[in-house]
Amino acid sequence: MREIVDKHFADNWVIPYYMGFIVDLTVQWENYKAAKAALSNTLYIENIKEIVEKFQTKIITCTKKTKEFLFEGTLTEEFVLDKINNLIQVIREANVTIRWLILHRNTVYKKAADLILPSFSKEQILTLILYTSQFEFLLKKMFEELIETKQQRWDEDKNSCCEKMAELADFYSGSTASGKVKADANYQQYFIEIKNQINSLNPNDATFAGRKIQQLIKALEDVEQFHQISSNLQIKSYLFETRTLLKHMLSTVNIRKQVLINLAQISDFAYAWQCVKDYRDLMQDKIKNDPTSALLLRATFMKLSSILNAPMVRIIQAGSPDMMSVSKYYSGELIKFVKHVLQV
What we know:
Blueprint: H1 2-8, E1 14-18, E2 21-24, H2 25-28, H3 33-39, H4 45-69, H5 77-104, H6 110-119, H7 122-148, H8 150-171, H9 185-199, H10 206-223, H11 227-230, H12 233-253, H13 257-266, H14 280-289, H15 293-304, H16 309-318, H17 323-342
Antiparallel strand pairs: 1-2
Helix pairs in contact: 1-3, 4-5, 4-6, 4-7, 5-7, 7-13, 7-15, 8-9, 8-12, 10-12, 14-17
């Protein structure tokens, strides 16, 4: 029991079990001596203070980070491609913070409640929910578009790289009109070989393609150091542009549907279905004070739609005829919640 608690409940004791219903382990484990004793380390007052201080820092930093990404012009395609792992990490930290705060504000353990409730206001938590939801919405939308255009982007970059390598090979063939570059069969063959290697890249084999692109980038950096090339600005320009295109291809090959699956799992909000009802009045106040906040609430409602997934997974797997009725019921419940908030 000690091992289970240390692994899974070292910093939490209020957990959701289904459709947003929650249990407080300080109550549920009261009659089980081994479980209660194992949980005592987590409920040690100094440990709770440390946890509260940690999340006090996190709620501030996560709110600041998610808000910064919402500024117009921040989430560009290039930025998302280059920083997707960092962006997912920000979303993960924000969701972990939201989850802990929403659940543990409902603890019935008085000593913990006396520390938690004064330390975090509902306004702070709702603000983080709104910013995080909007950030997730924008990122998912952009990544879906990137997936749709992945093959087109790849083909365009690959063709441009091949064209540049073919032109460099022509420069060293001696057949071009430019007299600034002396014919050199070795360089000609080298760039033809680079062109063939680029042309053989396949985005479906992401791991191999990624490693090969990195090798090609390094090879083009190395060849630029040779005197005959380093002294020619035109050829250096071609090499630089090719490396830039290859780096873009490297970002493109990492565009995978798995990212959207991970985002869906990280941003799951089904656990808050019951608790979020405590925030309806605050949501209405936000709309009263600033009608444009309804745009942020739209993303929050979409985040809440994850409540539909939980009851449907097993029903779909079982091929049950109840799929339509269950789906209709929970869709109706979600619509009722949205209507109640927006009726203001």
